[in-house]
Specification:
Layout (H helix, E strand, L loop, with lengths): L4 H23 L2 E2 L9 E3 L19 E9 L5 E10 L5 H8 L4 E3 L9 E9 L5 H9 L10
Parallel strand pairs: 1-6
Antiparallel strand pairs: 2-5, 3-4, 3-6
Length: 148
């Protein structure tokens, strides 16, 4: 079988260019705070079914989890990453399992369905007292996202 080295090289170069461009795009995504996300994307889920572990560290403690992720042009979540778990424990993966199920439709400011980077904060075993609940959730707010 004869291979054309010029053609093989061109294909390899095209694949490399695609991968580099994709990585650069991911780094240049607009970082949008959750409270401002509706201008770009609306959540369509009514429910999710998180994967909850049977055993682990601090599963019964009041906990907040922050998970960052990208909303792609298809409205699906990508690259979910645990950013904070307070107090430290094994509930971060539950936050990731929630984020992986989220589906969005584009908002009014997002005419071409531009992907954005955002994050999701959820709480577990939170107290009934609204002030105490807010205090716990505040621990997981990420400061490096656009708030205006």
């Amino acid at each position: 079988m004869n291979r054309n080295p010029l053609r093989t090289g061109a294909i390899a170069a095209a694949i490399t260019l695609f991968l580099v461009a994709g990585a650069a795009e991911a780094q240049n995504l607009r970082r949008v705070a959750p409270e401002n996300l509706t201008g770009y994307w609306f959540l369509t889920n009514k429910t999710v079914s998180p994967d909850i572990p049977n055993t682990g560290h601090n599963l019964n403690q009041p906990t907040c989890v922050a998970v960052s992720y990208m909303i792609g042009s298809d409205g699906r979540t990508h690259n979910a990453k645990i950013e904070k778990v307070v107090p430290a424990g094994d509930l971060g993966q539950v936050g990731v399992s929630i984020v992986n199920q989220l589906v969005y439709v584009k908002g009014a400011q997002n005419g071409t369905a531009v992907p954005v980077q955002t994050y999701y904060v959820t709480g577990f075993n939170l107290p009934e007292d609204p002030a105490r609940k807010a205090e716990i959730l505040k621990e997981c707010v990420l400061s490096n996202y656009q708030t205006t």
